[in-house]
Amino acid sequence: MSGTLNLNVAFSALADPTRRAILARLAKGEATVMELAKPFEMTQPAISQHLKVLEDAGLVACRVDGTKRPRRLAKAGIEAMDQWLAMLRKALGKNYDRLDEVLAGMEQPKIKRGEKR
Amino acid sequence: MSKLTLKTEGNTCVVVTRRFAAPPEAVYRAHTDPKLIQKWLLGPEGWTMPVCINDARPGGKIRYEWTDGKGPGFHLTGEYLELEPYSRIVHVERMHLPDPTPDNHVETRFAADGTGTLMTMRMTLPDAQTRAAMLATGMQAGMEASYVRLEGMI
Asked: Count of domains in chain B?
């Protein structure tokens, strides 16, 4: 399923702290490679490499402005991921909401019953 | 205030915390008694767990099978490593989708918190790639997934 594959690529892209920081920076507005490289004390090729991973994952987009190539967050990719995460959290939350009900329905636990399997 | 927190730790861990309005003994039992597990560890609406094997002793096997009654289901297998009633469980698990995912090492702690319990579940994956893959594919089990607080980050 290609949707799953893209998500996998996107989550892999997020596994790196520098790439997460780049996304956080781009959330404030678009920036060129040079502008991105400065705060990270990294070379431009190193930043470009990270940007390529983020672009391949569909999380960052590029626009042409004369000789510049400012990068920005790719809304669709970010939103797709956000929706997926919301679903995951909902599923996990649902499990524990059910567990709340199970616990409410349980008798006060008798310590000795811990022995049974 | 949300009762559930999910966050990544380092490159390979995922930590989930949740408070419950029941003492640690009860929450521990709900994690180790198959009849109780079958009532809540289900993931999305419409899924059930017809097979629940949970041999809660060191070396004991775990096997959960889920189905939505339509397509082929999936299952999880695992083994218990350590159990300290009613405060701590350590086990490994893997999803079969159908190929097995790399082992997820899970430590679950249950601490008394007032009249309730604070559960802290720390999942450790072999590497960052595996953690990413778990997020992207593991949602059905509910437990397997869900962590990056993207809104907080972006």
From this structure: 1
What are φ and ψ of residue A40, in 5° steps? -90, -5
Binary contact (B20, A91; C-beta < 8 A): no
- The closest alpha carbon to A90, from B21, B146, B132, B135, belongs to B146
Residues B75/B64, Cβ–Cβ less than 8 Å: yes
Residue of B nearest to A100 (CA): B20
User: Predicted ipTM?
Assistant: 0.82
Q: Would you say residue A5 has pLDDT above 80?
A: no
CA pair distance B97, B34, nearest whole angstrom = 22
Q: Does residue B154 lie within any of the structural domains?
A: no
Q: Is there a domain that residue B151 lies in? A: no
Contact A95 B27 (CB under 8 A): no
Domain that holds residue B39: 4-145
CATH number at residue B82: 3.30.530.20
- CA separation (Å) from B137 to A5, A96, B19? 9, 20, 26
pLDDT tens track for B26-73: 999 999 999 999 999 987 778 899 999 999 999 999 999 988 888 778
Kindly state whether residue B150 falls inside one of the protein's structural domains: no
Note the pLDDT tens digit of each residue in A23-45: 888 888 899 999 999 888 889 99
Give the CATH number of domain A2-100. Answer: 1.10.10.10
Asked if residue B78 is part of any domain, the answer here is yes
Which residue in B4, B11, B28 is closest to A92 by CB distance?
A: B4
Contacts of B27 in chain A (CB under 8 A): 99, 103
- Per-domain boundaries in chain A: 2-100
* Chain A residue numbers touching B145 (CB-CB < 8 A): 88, 91-92
